[in-house]
Amino acid sequence: MLHLSRRTADAFRNTGPKTDPPYVLSDDQWNLIADLFPDLPMTRRGGRPFKANRACFEGIFWVLMSGARWKDLPHCFPSKSVCHSRLQQWMKDGRFLEAWQRLVNRFKSLGRLNLKTLIGDGTFAPSADLS
């Protein structure tokens, strides 16, 4: 019977990059949108602790910026299912769009937004039926 050390066994189970990326948003940028994403307090019923909204937003941002799949989300962020469900919830109620607009407007006001070159990835978009 093959016995693996705990460290070796963990190495086989872990996927994704070996180095965790730093946060993308500065504290000033997060403070610009933090009012849209208040952390919920624990309820009396218990259950799993609520994952911090900043960590979820950063995980979503990482996926959007890197073009990676949700399953490749680094371990420093909440799970792919938590981040994805938060994105769906925030898109549905308009909070993600509002946050995005605030951040884009901040970059625009600072003169750091360059719209001369835009790239769209249509890898997963169906082609139009032109027949």
Task: Give a structural overview.
11% of the residues are buried. The model is unreliable at 1-14 (pLDDT under 50). It is built from five helices and no strands. The termini are far apart. The protein has helices at 6-13, 27-33, 53-66, 80-93, 95-109. The protein is 44% helix and 0% strand. The chain is globular, with a radius of gyration of 19 Å. The longest helix has 15 residues, at 95-109. By secondary structure, it is mainly alpha-helical.
Helices, strands, pairings?
Elements: H1 6-13, H2 27-33, H3 53-66, H4 80-93, H5 95-109
Helix pairs in contact: 3-4
Short description:
This protein is mainly alpha-helical and 131 residues long. Helices cover 44% and strands 0% of the residues.
**Spans of at least 5 consecutive residues with low confidence:** 1-14
Order of SSEs? HHHHH
What is the terminal-to-terminal distance? 62 Å
Q: Please state the average pLDDT score.
A: 80
Helix run count: 5
Describe the sheet with the most strands.
none
Strand content: under 5%
Please tell me how large the radius of gyration is.
19 Å
- Percent in helix: 40-55%
Number of strands: 0
Query: What coarse outline follows from CA principal-axis ratios?
Result: globular
List key phrases describing it.
131 residues, globular, mainly alpha, single chain
